[in-house]
Structure formats: structure tokens, C-alpha cells
Amino acid sequence: MLKELILAIRAYFSAHRFIVQHKLWKWMIVPGILYAYLFVLGMNYFSQSSSFFIESIILKTGLKSWVDTLNNDLIGFFITMGSFWLWFTLLLFYFALFKYLFLILFAPFFAYLHLRIDAIKNETAFVFNSKAYRKLIARALLLNVTNLLWQTVYLIPIVIICTLPIIGWFTPIFTILIECYFLGAAMLDYNLASEQKNKVAAAAYVNNHKGLPIGNGLVFYLLHFIPIIGWMTAPFYSLIAAQLNTQEVKDNA
What we know:
By secondary structure, the protein is mostly helical.
């Protein structure tokens, strides 16, 4: 798994060279700007709504009044830490919803870009195949909706556990790993679909190479710490890196 994790991270550098070599910047400018705009808009909404949500819980449950009557700094510290980790976990959960909304809305673009990349990678002329294109979109939509449901199932107990003292402080680590896995799996599936792997075979492949989706998703999230440029390029670098990843693993098999 560690080797695959390293391969997935390294693939982003290969993706950059691939983009520069084949002049693919033009395919990500407009969608990249739209993604960056939606990201800023979504995070702004989250920062306002989440703080209000957590504060309402503390006040309505009487937790704040109870802590005030105890006048205990240690308990106050645990409550503060619990509130922070709850906020952070909700941030990851909200970002997951945002991510799936983007993956679903942009499935037609990702499918088209994948087909062009596949033609370049195989050194063949690009010929638009409407049937293959529609199948790729349908598969991407179904996969992302399914992943959204599964990820929600996994994250609900994590949100509950994160409110527990000390133990709950480690839950964001598992949340991030789950986030990375499902994001990477969605990106990897475009290439797996082109290799004629059905949904069962593709799921087995991703499960057997967990380092690839986790590494792919991890760099995707880290790129969001780079303002503007990182927000614009993260989804497209992730898609291309995933495509190069599956090829590299197959070549080394």
C-alpha cells in the first residue's frame, strides 16, 4: 500500500508534465474558474452555518450552562476541543457533499476529457464516440451517487464519535482517509471503465490497490491549501494522475 501511495503522489508530477506537453491547459480554465468560485461560495456558507449549528446544540442542550456552573477549566477544555473537532469533521462532511455535487455536475466534462487523454496516451487520433461517451457519463453518475451514500453511512457514526473526549479527537484522521479513498476511486474509475472493467471488477481493483485512491485523493485535498491556482487545478490534475496511475500499475504488474 505504501508503494502505491507513493506512486499516486508521484503521478501528480507526471500529470503536470503531461498537461504541459500536450497543451491541455485550455480544457481546465473555464471549469477550473467555476470550481474555484463554487468552492469559495460553499466554504463561506459552511463557515457561517456550522458555527451557528454547533452553538445552537451547546445552548439548547444546556451544556454551556452546565459547564458554567461547574467552573472547571479541564471540563471546559474538553468541551472546547470537542466543539472544534466536531466543527472540523462537519467541514470534511460538507466538503464531501460539495465534492460529489461537483463530480456529478461535471461528469460530462470529465468523461469527454478522459476520452481525449486516453487517445493521447494511446497515441491514436481522437474520434468522438457518442455511445462510449454516454456510457461513461452514466457510469460516473451512478458511481458518485453510490459513493455518496456509502460515505454518508461511514461518516455519520464518525460525527457522533468525534464529540467524545480524547477518542473523538482522532476521528478526523479516519474521515480524511475515507474522503481521499472515495475521491480517488471516482477518478480511477474513468480509466477502469475504458479498460472494460465492469463495476464489480473495478471495485475489486480499487480495493486491492487502496494506496492509489488514497494517495490521489490526498494530493487533491492538499492542493486546496494553494489559493486560486490549487482550487482551479485540483480536479483535473487528479483525473489525469489517476489515469496515469492505473497505466503505471498495469505496466509494472
